[in-house]
Amino acid sequence: MKNNYPTGLKLAAVSLGCSKNRIDTEEILGYLARKGFIITDHYQSADIILINTCAFIDQAQEESVNTILKMAKTTDQNRPKIVAAGCLVEVFGHKIIQDFREVDGAIGVHSYSNLDQFIRMLFSGKRTVIKKSPPNIYCSLSPRIITAPAHSISVKIAEGCSNCCHYCLIPRIRGPYRSRDPEDIITEIKDLLDKGTSEINLIAQDTTAYGSDQYHLPNLSGLIRTILTLDRTFRLRIMYTYPSRIDDELIELIASEKRVCNYLDIPIQHTNDQMLKRMGRSYNRQELTILYNKLHRKIPDLALRTTLMVGYPGESSSYFRDLISFVEDNPFDSLGAFTYSRQAGTIAGNLDGQVNSRVAKKRYRDLMMRQKQIARKINEKYVGRHLSILVDGASKTGANWYYGRTEYQAPEVDGLVYFRSTVPLKPGSWVSAKINAVTSYNLWAGNSTLLKSFSE
């Protein structure tokens, strides 16, 4: 079918929010590039500017709106078409074009297969919104155009979520959990490795739920074992795991496979039993403690990351102290936190006991200050050790200084290692260096030894 819109159009894109959103943006870019669009990062000369929005919390929604308005002011003689895409469209639908005259069209996360129709309508002069219901299966527009550093790539293994936590809009936005076909995953990873990617980060709203929606699919451990049959040098990182779904099989796999990072990201949200129940989480404090101890017993060299929420409805001072005490007794290598954001359409939005925003912000500051002290103490265990480091780039610290990450540090969310090299290094190379000093977030090393250059 003909496109029925001008050829050679220039498309610029802005991706907001999580890495899952960025993958959607990269798939859109790849699809439209195959349709004849010219992809550009020069917004002023673009014919279309697509903003892939985030709507998880109030701050994300505000950032999305501000970005749309900012891009609308990025004009040349002919104003580009401004397209709002993604999560914000799922939440607000037609209100986006009703409330913002700057927006020429809006398309939701489940409608990207209709991009041709959408763009034809866009260039017919009709302001339109396409917002469809979630499909029954995982849908992809891949292959994608990689916009992140090519040596460390996130691969999405599922879409949507069926956990239905009481505070979360994701099931409403992204639909129920849908596992991606394993052959499709393997094909993408193989292609990335063939192009030189050194690190694969498996992501989903809940990676540990992989295969649970379709009886014929493997579970997460089975998927990882299939990935590891690829005869390549790379490391594999597992993100976004759900505590009650981390089983012995997955733990043994991480402990035994050298290419799987000794690292787990486990967003637990809270640790007080009453709060967890009000959040709709399917575990309690005792189960978290048992899991924490088991993980460190089975994998002594494991780094753990978590995400916590403060200020959730009903969180009393004692419940918050309970959270702090858990973090002190069960320290995490890395910890992110955010204050609760009340969202219409969620169960939590109608709960009593809404916490004052000033109180929530203070609890956030107190939690992160305590974590800063904990993280520095944890990092001290690396002093004197020679660690393998994946090079991310050259540092502005000084001449011959570079930065990268060990297997204990995930991209974008964790700290870095700073080190020196007597030879020029490219991102994606591997070096070894002795850790000499630490801060709460970063490690510092001396001269490094090249293990493998990116060009090999």
List its salient traits.
3 domains, six-stranded parallel beta sheet, pyruvate-formate lyase- activating enzyme, Rossmann fold, globular, 456 residues, alpha/beta
User: What is the helix fraction of residues, given as a range?
Assistant: 25-40%
Given as residue ranges, the uncertain stretches (5+ residues, pLDDT < 50) are: none
Number of helices: 13
Q: Averaged pLDDT, please?
A: 94
Query: How do the strands of the widest beta sheet line up side by side?
Result: 2-1-3-4-5-6
Task: Give the number of domains.
Answer: 3
Oligomerization category of the chains in this entry = single chain
Give the strand tally: 19
CATH structural class of the largest domain: Alpha Beta
Examine the secondary-structure arrangement and name the CATH architecture of the largest domain. Answer: Alpha-Beta Horseshoe
Biggest pleated sheet = 6 strands, parallel
Please sum up the structure shown.
This protein is an alpha/beta fold and 456 residues long.
Explain the overall architecture.
The chain is α/β, with parallel strands linked by helices and 456 residues long. It folds into three domains: 10-130, Methylthiotransferase, N-terminal domain (Rossmann fold); 152-378, Alpha-Beta Horseshoe (pyruvate-formate lyase- activating enzyme), CATH 3.80.30.20; 383-452, Nucleic acid-binding proteins (OB fold (Dihydrolipoamide Acetyltransferase, E2P), Beta Barrel), CATH 2.40.50.140. 31% of the residues lie in helices and 22% in strands. The chain has 13 helices and 19 strands. The protein has helices spanning 19-34, 58-72, 87-92, 95-99, 115-123, 170-174, 182-194, 220-227, 248-256, 273-279, 285-298, 317-329, 357-379, and strands spanning 10-15, 38-39, 48-53, 81-86, 105-107, 128-130, 152-156, 158-159, 178-179, 199-203, 235-238, 260-265, 303-310, 334-339, 386-394, 401-405, 417-420, 430-438, 443-452. The strands form four sheets. It has a six-stranded parallel sheet with strand order 2-1-3-4-5-6, sandwiched between helices. Helix 12 (317-329) packs parallel to helix 13. The radius of gyration is 23 Å and the shape is globular. The protein starts with 9 loop residues before the first strand and ends with a strand.
